[in-house]
Design brief:
The complex is a heterodimer of chains A (about 425) and B (about 425). Chain A is α+β, with helices and mostly antiparallel strands and about 425 residues long. Chain A has 2 domains: about 200 residues, Cytochrome Bc1 Complex, Chain A, domain 1 (2-Layer Sandwich), CATH 3.30.830.10; about 190 residues, Metalloenzyme, LuxS/M16 peptidase-like (Cytochrome Bc1 Complex, Chain A, domain 1, 2-Layer Sandwich). Helices cover about 45% and strands about 15% of the residues of chain A. Chain A has 17 helices and 11 strands. In chain A, strands 1-2-6-3-5-4 form a 6-stranded mixed β-sheet, sandwiched between helices. In chain A, strands 7-11-8-10-9 form a 5-stranded mixed β-sheet, with helices on both faces. The termini of chain A are far apart. With about 425 residues, chain B is an alpha+beta fold. Chain B has 2 domains: about 200 residues, Cytochrome Bc1 Complex, Chain A, domain 1; about 200 residues, 2-Layer Sandwich (Cytochrome Bc1 Complex, Chain A, domain 1). Chain B is about 40% helix and about 20% strand. Chain B has 15 helices and 11 strands. In chain B, the strands form 2 sheets. Chain B has a 6-stranded mixed β-sheet with strand order 1-2-6-3-5-4, with helices on both faces. Chain B has a 5-stranded mixed β-sheet with strand order 7-11-8-10-9, with helices on both faces. In chain B, helix 1 packs across helix 7 and helix 9 packs across helix 15. The longest helix of chain B has 19 residues. The chains are: A alpha+beta (about 425), B alpha+beta (about 425). At the A-B interface, helix 2, strand 5, helix 4, helix 10 and helix 12 of A face helix 2, strand 5, helix 4 and helix 12 of B.
C-alpha cells in the first residue's frame, strides 16, 4: 500500500479541491467531479430536481449541442455520466489516457456552462417518469420506499426519494434547473479526483486551465459546503406491506435509525456488522437464514453511515411461504447479537477481512477515486490506509459488543415488504 | 491497448491434462485464481436443464477436507473475494486475495475439483435457494422476455434454455444426477487453472502442480455437436402480464467468437448502438445506446423508448445478437419495432462510412483498455477465452478490430440482420399498477 498510495492534493485559488493518484496498470483514466449539490438541497415540492439538473448537464452548453457533446465522447469511446445522490452531484468521465485533456475540457464545459435546453429537458422528464413507473413494478424499490417513509418524518432530508415522484417531476419548471445550478454549483463546493495513467503535472495544468476560471459564491470548501442532517430517534417498530401479486419473490427490509460516519463507534459497528450480516456471505444472518434454513436467496445487513445517520438495515429476498419464519429468524439473530455481542474468533475474522480487503478496493481506478472521496469528505488524512489497520486492530470484543448493545434495537426493527403477499396467506 | 494481454504469460499442461496459465502482474499485492470447467448449460438436456448451475451451487457446500463454512471463511480472512458462475459454455470459480495466500486458493480449487461432498440435506436446502434465485429473476419482466425469446430462437441447441434451468427440472432433479455430472466434467482434462497477479511464474506453476498434479485426468467424453436447423421466417413471442411498462426485444442468430464474422459483427453493433468490448460483464443491456448512434437517433430522440441496448456475446457456438428496449408510456410496440428494423435495413443496405467505423473501433478498443484495469478481470479474460476459443484469438482481437473494413461490416450486417432470421418479443403490460 505504502508504495502505490501516493495521492497529491491542492486547492485552486477559486476553492476547487483537486486530488490525483497515478495508476499505470492500464492506459485508462477516470476523472470524477463532485459538487455539494444533492437531493437534500432541493425543496420537498421539487423532489428529483437535483437528479434532473445533473442529467441536464450533458444536454447542451453555451457552445455545444447535445449532439456535439456526444460526438466528443463517441469518437473517443469515452464515457461521461452525471447523477445526483442525497448529498452531492457527480460528473464522472472515463477515458483512454490519450483523451484525458479533451474529456476534462468537456467535463468543465458541462459543469460550468449548461443551458438546459427546453426540448431536451422535456425528454429527460419523460425518461424519469418511465423510470419511476418501472420502480412501481420493482419489489426492491418499493420495499425501500416504504421503509424510508416509515423511518423518517415528513420533511426530513432523507424521507423522500432522490429520484422524486411522478408528481414532483411533472411539476418542476425549466427555470428551476438553472436556479438550482446557480445556487449550488460552485468551485468552492467541488472536488475533482483524477486517477489513472495521467501524470500529476498534466492533471494540475488541465484542472487550472479548465476549472481555474470558474467563479461562484464562496461555500467554504467541499467538506464545509454540505448541509447538516438532523438525527432521528429510534422509534417504535412499524410495518408496511405492499402486495404485488404478479411477482414471484418478496423483498424484505427491516431496520431502524443508525449512526453517522463520524460517530466514534463507526469502526466497532462496522466490524460487528460484518459478523452479523456480511462476513462469508451474510455473516450469522446468511448462515442461519440462507444456509441452514434455506429461507432466502440472499440476506445481509448494513449500517448506512454517511454525513447523516443512515439506517441500520437487514435485507432479504424470500419466497412467500418463508416470509414469517425469515422475519422472526432475522429478529432473533439481531437480538442474540445485541444481548451477547461478538465472539473473539468472529471478531478476528472480521478484522482480518476488513484490513485485508483494502488492496482490492484500491485496485481499480473507480475504487481508488471513491476511497479518496471518503478521505476528503470525512477528513481521514493521507495516512488513513496505514492507520486503517491500526484502528481496526485496536477494536476488541468489548468495543464491538458494546456497539451491538448500544446500536441494535430488535424491538424497534420496522418491517417493509413488497411482493406476492396474497401467496403468504394462501400458504 | 499499449501491450498484449498475453504479456509475460506462461502456458503449460500438467501430466493429467490440466492446463495452467500464469500471468505475473506486480501492481498490487494481490493474486486472482480462476478454475474453469468446459461445461455449461448447453451440455444439458430435457429433464436435466439447470444441472450445471445446480452443481456450481453444490460445489460451495464443502469438500472432504474443507467445510462449507471454511470455504468462505478462509478466503475472506485473507482479505479475499470469491464467487463462481455458470454460463452457456463454461462453469468457473475464482478467488482474488492477498498474494501470499495463493496456495489457499489453489487448495480450495483442487478440493472443489474432486472432493465435493454432495450431502443429502445440503442438496435439498440448496434446491430451495436455486428456486428462490429463479423466482427473484422472474420479478423482472425483461428477464422473463429474454428467457422466452431465447427459447424461441433455439429448437435443438442447448443455448435455448436458461442457465438456471426450467423450474420443473430443478424441482425434480435428484442428487445422483448431480453427482454424475460433477464426476464426469470436473476433471483435470476438462479444466484450466489461471493465476494472475503478484506471483513468481515458476513458483506459481509448481504450486498448481503440487495441489492438482495427483488428481486423475478423467474423461469428460464426447459431446454431440448440435447444429441449430436453419430458420425460415420470423418468430414472435408476446408476454402479457400485470405491470407498468412495455418492453421489446429483438434477436438474430450470431456467429461464434472464433468465426471470422464475429469481429465485423462486434463493429456493426458498435456502429448501431455503441462499442462494448468483448467481456461477459461489459456487453449487454445495462448500457444505453450512445447519443450519436443510429439507435439513439431513431428511438430515443423521437421519444419512442427510454432506453435501448444491445449485446453481442463471445460464445463457443453460434448464439444471439440481441436488442432490448424499454418503451415510453403509451407508445405502441409496432412503432418501436418499425424504427428499429429501419436501422437494421439501413446498415445492411447502405453499409457504414469510414468516420462511423473509426468511431466504432475507438469505442471497442477503449472498452478493451477499460477491461484490463484489475487482475481479476485479466485472469477472467484469459480463462474465458482459453475455454471457448484460444488465447491467440483473444490476443488478436485488438488487431482484428483495427483491420476490419467497411465492406466486411456491411457484408456481415446484411447476413445477420435479416427479416426472416429474427426473433421479436414484446412485454405488454396489463393495467397500470
Amino acid at each position: 500500500m505504502k508504495s502505490s498510495f501516493t495521492p497529491r492534493r491542492v486547492v485552486l485559488d477559486n476553492g476547487l479541491t483537486l486530488i490525483h493518484q497515478h495508476n499505470p496498470i492500464s492506459p485508462a483514466v477516470i476523472a470524477s467531479l463532485s459538487v455539494a449539490a444533492g437531493a437534500v438541497q432541493e425543496p420537498a415540492a421539487q423532489g428529483g430536481l437535483a437528479t434532473l439538473t445533473a442529467s441536464g448537464l450533458r444536454r447542451g452548453t453555451t457552445s455545444r449541442s447535445k449532439r456535439d457533446i456526444g460526438e466528443v465522447l463517441d469518437y473517443r469511446g469515452a464515457h461521461l455520466g452525471s447523477s445526483a445522490s442525497r448529498h452531492s452531484t457527480s460528473i464522472v468521465a472515463k477515458m483512454r489516457a490519450v483523451d484525458t485533456a479533451d474529456l476534462i475540457e468537456l467535463m468543465a464545459d458541462c459543469v460550468r456552462n449548461p443551458v438546459f435546453p427546453a426540448e431536451e429537458i422535456e425528454k429527460l422528464r419523460g425518461n424519469r417518469i418511465t423510470a419511476l413507473r418501472e420502480d412501481d413494478d420493482d419489489p426492491d424499490v418499493m420495499a425501500a420506499r416504504g421503509f424510508r417513509e416509515m423511518l423518517y418524518p415528513a420533511g426530513h432530508p432523507y424521507a423522500a426519494s432522490v429520484r422524486g415522484t411522478i408528481e414532483t417531476i411533472e411539476s418542476i419548471e425549466l427555470e428551476q434547473l438553472g436556479t438550482f445550478h446557480a445556487d449550488h454549483y460552485a468551485p468552492s463546493a467541488a472536488l475533482l479526483i483524477v486517477v489513472g495513467a495521467a501524470s500529476w503535472e498534466d492533471t494540475l495544468a488541465l484542472a487550472q486551465q479548465h476549472f481555474g476560471g470558474w467563479n461562484g459564491a464562496d461555500r467554504g470548501g467541499y467538506r464545509a459546503a454540505h448541509d447538516e442532517i438532523p438525527d432521528v430517534p429510534i422509534g417504535p417498530a412499524v410495518e408496511r406491506r405492499l402486495d404485488m401479486p404478479d411477482k414471484a419473490q418478496i423483498s424484505l427490509l427491516m431496520g431502524h435509525s443508525g449512526i453517522r460516519r463520524t460517530d466514534p463507534r463507526f469502526y466497532a459497528a462496522a466490524l460487528m456488522n460484518l459478523v452479523l450480516g456480511r462476513f462469508a456471505m451474510g455473516g450469522r444472518l446468511g448462515r442461519v437464514v440462507r444456509e441452514e434454513q434455506g429461507m432466502a436467496y440472499y440476506t445481509y445487513s448494513d449500517f448506512g453511515a454517511g454525513l447523516g445517520a443512515g439506517p441500520f438495515t437487514v435485507r432479504a429476498g424470500v419466497q412467500p411461504q418463508h416470509m414469517a419464519a425469515a422475519v422472526s429468524s432475522i429478529r432473533e439473530q439481531v437480538e442474540i447479537m445485541r444481548a451477547s455481542g461478538v465472539k473473539q474468533g468472529e471478531l478476528d475474522d472480521a478484522k482480518s477481512a476488513a484490513i485485508g480487503s483494502l488492496p482490492r478496493t484500491l485496485e481499480s481506478n473507480e475504487g481508488m477515486a471513491g476511497f479518496l472521496h471518503q478521505i476528503e469528505l470525512f477528513d481521514l488524512g493521507w495516512d488513513y490506509p496505514d492507520r486503517y489497520a491500526e484502528i481496526m486492530s485496536a477494536i476488541d470484543v468489548e468495543a464491538a459488543s458494546a456497539a451491538a448493545s448500544e446500536l441494535l434495537h430488535p424491538e424497534a426493527l420496522s418491517l417493509s415488504v413488497a411482493g406476492p403477499l396474497q401467496a403468504v396467506s394462501e400458504s | 491497448m499499449s501491450e498484449s494481454i498475453l504479456t509475460d504469460l506462461h502456458s503449460t499442461r500438467l501430466d493429467n491434462g490440466l492446463r495452467v496459465l500464469v500471468r505475473p502482474i506486480h501492481t498490487a499485492p494481490l493474486v486472482s485464481v480462476w478454475c474453469w470447467y468446459h461445461v455449461g448449460s448447453k451440455n444439458e438436456g430435457p429433464g436435466t436443464t439447470g444441472i450445471s448451475h445446480f452443481v456450481e451451487h453444490m460445489n460451495f457446500k464443502g469438500t472432504e477436507g474443507i467445510s462449507r463454512e471454511d470455504l468462505k471463511v478462509w478466503i475472506e480472512r485473507a482479505g479475499g473475494t470469491w464467487n463462481g458462475y455458470t454460463w452457456l459454455d463454461q462453469t468457473t470459480y475464482f478467488e482474488t486475495l492477498a498474494a501470499d495466500s495463493l496456495d489457499l486458493a489453489l487448495r480450495i480449487e483442487a478440493e472443489r475439483m474432486h472432493a465435493c461432498l454432495y450431502e443429502a440435506d445440503e442438496f435439498e436446502s440448496e434446491r430451495t435457494v436455486v428456486l428462490a434465485e429463479m423466482h427473484g429473476n422472474r420479478n423482472d419482466p425483461q428477464h422473463e422476455l429474454d428467457v422466452d425469446l431465447t427459447a424461441a430462437a433455439f429448437r435443438m441447441h442447448g443455448y435455448g434454455w436458461p442457465t438456471i434451468g426450467w423450474q420443473s427440472d430443478v424441482e425434480t432433479m435428484n442428487r445422483q444426477a448431480l453427482l454424475d455430472h460433477y464426476r464426469r466434467y470436473y476433471v483435470p482434462s476438462n479444466a484450466i487453472v489461471v493465476v494472475a497477479g503478484d506471483v513468481d511464474t515458476n513458483a506459481a506453476v509448481d504450486a498448481v502442480a503440487a495441489r492438482f498434479g495427483s488428481i486423475p485426468a478423467g474423461d469428460a467424453g464426447a459431446r454431440p455437436a448440435v447444429v441449430e436447423p436453419t430458420q425460415h421466417g420470423e418468430r414472435r413471442v408476446v408476454l402479457e402480464r400485470p405491470g407498468t411498462t412495455g418492453y421489446l426485444e429483438v434477436a438474430f442468430g450470431a456467429p461464434a467468437f472464433a468465426d471470422a464474422d464475429f469481429v465485423p459483427l462486434l463493429l456493426a453493433d458498435a456502429v448501431l448502438s455503441g462499442g462494448k468490448g468483448a467481456n461477459l460483464w461489459s456487453g449487454g443491456f445495462g448500457r444505453n445506446a450512445r447519443t450519436t448512434s443510429p439507435l439513439y437517433t431513431a428511438l430515443i430522440e423521437p421519444e419512442l423508448v427510454v432506453s435501448v441496448g444491445s449485446a453481442v456475446l463471445p460464445t463457443e457456438d453460434p448464439y444471439l445478437y440481441s436488442f432490448s428496449a424499454t418503451l415510453r408510456d403509451g407508445v405502441d410496440h409496432r412503432r418501436v419495432e418499425d424504427a428499429l428494423f429501419g436501422c437494421f435495413d439501413t446498415l445492411a443496405e447502405d453499409g457504414v462510412d469510414e468516420h462511423s467505423l473509426t468511431k466504432a473501433k475507438n469505442q471497442v478498443l477503449a472498452s478493451l483498455a477499460f477491461e484490463s484495469e484489475q487482475i481479476t478481470q485479466i485472469a477472467h479474460q484469459l480463462g474465458y477465452y482459453a475455454t471457448i476459443a484460444s488465447l491467440e484469438d483473444l490476443d488478436a482481437l485488438p488487431g482484428r478490430v483495427a483491420a476490419t473494413t467497411v465492406d466486411e461490416v456491411r457484408r456481415v450486417a446484411a447476413a445477420v440482420l435479416r427479416h426472416d432470421k429474427r426473433m421479436v418479443g414484446w412485454v405488454v403490460p396489463r393495467g397500470a399498477a
